[in-house]
Amino acid sequence: MATRTGRSADKVARILGSAEELLLKRGFRGVTIADIAERAHVGKGTVYLYWSTKEDVFLELLTRDVLTLINGFREAATRNLELTLPHRLCPYLVRSALERPLVRALQANDADVLGLVVDHPRSQELVKHHGAPALIKALLPIWRRHGLVRTDWELGDQAYALQSLTLGHLEIQVRKHVSPDTTMPPEDVLAAAVAALLGVGGEAAMDLDAVAAEVLQVFTTSAAILEGANA
């Protein structure tokens, strides 16, 4: 990938914004570097000065989108510490993914949108270390230590169950033609389901500040790694 030193932040933002717009409209196979350059009002040479290939453009775009989601949670949870509790955090992650189509496509392994990028080692590493399953697996031990969730399951089984519930809800929401017949908003149903699945409890006696500090540290660490990747 071309060096990032000396890049114009304005041009980078314009190019990535144009790349995202075209990617969502046409899919990976329908976009060329020339298309991106034309939409961003820069020369093809400028794009190639910053990125070696089309794949590199989209990989940086995906990384930035995931980073934006993570930083968005950090900001929201700093203002409202209760978002760090499991039955509040899982609906937040789903809502945030729904608001960011590329994150959703990456999480769903959507080759129609992402094309070859979906199988790129860097995409796979992004999901493996910073996707919803990775975050859930990192957060469950914190919630268990603080007595917020049941501990009579093997950790891996519990993580798998919570991932299935959360990602299954995301998939239903993505399929807009599916109309859930619920008496509550679907997001509230997910929150209740997470609480029931995990046996959420102990909130009256917990130290919310301590829980929030540990949960936020997971997201801060993830953000630092992603920021380093785009430095």
TrEMBL record:
<dbReference type="Pfam" id="PF00440">
    <property type="entry name" value="TetR_N"/>
</dbReference>
<dbReference type="InterPro" id="IPR001647">
    <property type="entry name" value="HTH_TetR"/>
</dbReference>
<dbReference type="GO" id="GO:0003700">
    <property type="term" value="F:DNA-binding transcription factor activity"/>
</dbReference>
<dbReference type="InterPro" id="IPR050109">
    <property type="entry name" value="HTH-type_TetR-like_transc_reg"/>
</dbReference>
<feature type="DNA-binding region" description="H-T-H motif">
    <location>
        <begin position="32"/>
        <end position="51"/>
    </location>
</feature>
<keyword id="KW-0804">Transcription</keyword>
<protein>
    <submittedName>
        <fullName>Transcriptional regulator, TetR family</fullName>
    </submittedName>
</protein>
<feature type="domain" description="HTH tetR-type">
    <location>
        <begin position="9"/>
        <end position="69"/>
    </location>
</feature>
<dbReference type="InterPro" id="IPR023772">
    <property type="entry name" value="DNA-bd_HTH_TetR-type_CS"/>
</dbReference>
<dbReference type="InterPro" id="IPR009057">
    <property type="entry name" value="Homeodomain-like_sf"/>
</dbReference>
<keyword id="KW-0238">DNA-binding</keyword>
<keyword id="KW-0805">Transcription regulation</keyword>
<dbReference type="GO" id="GO:0000976">
    <property type="term" value="F:transcription cis-regulatory region binding"/>
</dbReference>
